[in-house]
Records
---
Amino acid sequence: MTRDLTQPEILTELEPVAETALNRHMSMVKEWHPHDYVPWDDGRNFAMLGGTDWAPEQSRLSEVAKAALITNLLTEDNLPSYHREISENFSRDGAWGTWVGRWTAEEARHSAVLRDYLVVTRGVDPVALENARMIHMTNGFAPPVDRVNSAGAAGFLYSVAYVSFQELATRISHRNTAAVCDDPVADRMLQRVALDENLHMIFYRGICGAALDLVPDQAVEAIDLIVRNFRMPGTGMPDFRRNGVLMAKHGIYDLRQHLEEVLQPVMRQWNLFGRDGFGPRGEQARERLAAYLADLETVQIPRFEEHRDRALARERARVGLPR
């Protein structure tokens, strides 16, 4: 017989798990400093200080690399919104509070190093970048689902389910962005950021797995809703659709990667489709999730890939490359 718990009860029950995960994280995380990853010798003043302002020909980045770096940076910029969501759904006490603070501090380095790199190397228009940052941070981040179940625990469970997938998705996006930058400095920087994201994913994935053991029906309902309504945290930023299409077309982050490199590995780690202990609600949620994943694999991904291949063929034809 499964049981529902309130959010405070879940936090209390899972705090020993959070403490163990926090200690493991602190034993694995490597100290690094954003300034070490920026080619400062490439920098020069802008017009206000007697130099020259940005011009498109100054950038050495492809359009795909620009789109990916801007998207990744603006996503990292929205950290205040993510901190608010996590802190509201976790606790400020004990291991929970320590983790929220540590995670926020580590995440803050990502926007610092990405922005410094782009401004110093003149990779993108810094005025347009700042205007986009102002818009995106003013709008903030809205969670993909905003429902509270009868026990009042959905906020925490939705949060840990979402970040279990999102941190891994972000890691993959940073890693694949490195491959299109054609710059060893950017490669080192993005690989370093991706390592942070992977450790964050491991923390949240472990907490969500423990929640599945503790409150299986509530947890799988949260996972089901998150997966079926998943949106990357950059959704809504200026030019997100255009940049997202470019990134998907050129293999930085697309639907197949989302399924095969994010959703499936995390759910395998939880043994979501092999475990017992669900009640009727949990079984229904698992069945909905299985049906959605099957549709993603057999309908949505083939449809996307067909459209993508046609678009790439048109691009190659325009520039005279073989198909």
---
Amino acid sequence: MTLAIGRRTATESATAGPAPRRAWRRLPATPALLRSLTPLALLLAWQVGSETGALSERILPAPSVILDAGLEVWRSGELGDALAVSGQRVLLGFTLGAVVAVVAAVLAASSRLGEYLVDPPMQMLRTVPLFGLIPVFIIWFGIDEQPKIFLIALGVAFPLYLNTYAGIRQLDPKLDELSRVLGLTTAEKLRDIVFPGALPHVLVGLRQSLGIAWLSLIVAEQINASAGLGFIVNNAREFLRTDIVIFGLLVYGLLGLITDAAVRVVERRALRWSTR
């Protein structure tokens, strides 16, 4: 009797197929949707808190109020001009910082002499408070565009330098022997061996550097900015327009997310061989 029950149970299990998955596992969720759940929940809680009076309108306006303020800035044409100016500052600062970082990392990681000459000053400068250099930059370069661009470049350089340096140093020494056997020139070695091998680390440094570039821009545009997002935020602060101030900060954050997402796309395509 027990054997018959066991056979029937085994037969029923075999014909029944795999156990049905839970309903939430069958939901057509995408990574983008899952990543947006928490921000949407926080946004909803923020709106509810503002409408119920739990959050002071003077200190933190409701999302709907901030959206109206953003539409006001957009319709006036100020936002488009500000994005163009701020984007140009980030582009120039990032390009300058990235070039310095990659060149310094290659020199420091390629030989002992380069390491002794380049790495110590880079490590020393890395520990200097970035935003504490603002008064020095104003004295050196004035209050025009130069201090803003150099501040962004300095913030960009160190994360990219550290990651590129680490990526080059972790390469298999046998690859260096292979390049000598093949008779590769220095440029060919960098193009075909060094940079492809260090690419995962470089992309990590790139994501960090882009994030710091936008953070540096927020501070840099407080230096007598006559245009850009910082100019809009400073004007709104003078007139106690908290809604426009927060809208400007949200735009900074959104720009950072967009650039980070762009690098993530490049990372997925460039590292298809990775098992991660």
---
Amino acid sequence: MEKLKIVFDWFPNTIHAGILAAKKNGEYEKAGLDVDIEGQVHHAMDPSTTDMICGPEISMLMNMEHGVALTGIAQFTQKCDSGLVSLKSAGISRMKDLEGKRLTYWDLPWYHPAVGYLVEKDGGDYSKVKKVMMDVGDIVSTLGTTADATWVYENWEKYALLDAGKEVNYINFGDIDPIFNFCAPAIAATGNAIANKADALRTFLHVTDLSYRRMAADPEKILEVSDMIPEASSDNMLVAGAKHLAPIWIDENGKWGRIKPAMWNNMADFLVKKNVISKRREKEFTNEFFDD
């Protein structure tokens, strides 16, 4: 039995459903893999004790900039599910509307160049946005109290708010500029795993691909792993999020996980332009661990 460890970018949530289902149903084990799953590491991409790590492409590129041996090997969705959520009462229906409003942010070098670009593209002044540094864990208790808007994954925070009876506005960043239709979240393999566990990575992605295809075909299957997603507020929230993800989990060929070069390259080139990273690197990502 080949051992593989994957570390999620956050606690297990809707986006991870295909991996969780393959684990619970014994599909990895049947394929000869002993897959260990860990979570709770939002933005902390330490590859030293794992084979694969989940997170946004931006964080992967930042780690590569600092000499960490990582290569993107899969993306969870074929359209980036990332954007700005706010309560409808805050009146934020476009990026310019953030002027004078409280926006949470992470203390990371790419955050302000990214969001500032989107605000200014819409004719706004990012210096007029009130920044609140915090890593939001509970979006329901945060919006309307500590902050007015937060950068989130739509499939989780938006549906948590709706499940709590809130009326919300959501802006998908990729709809504003294709640069922001990037690989988030994605899966990266460590240099050690690529060198020493290539066959196991191929098997993992094959099994995971098939699991996500089944989940996309019947999003209510997510209820089979609801016990593995304890942070969900209800089954209704899980099903609503999975139904939202179903059409973007798979590509135009009905497959999961293949990295679209344009999605990766547009953001990587943007980060170079904004001096967030110094240069592009060879083998930032690959699809070579898929069957085709």
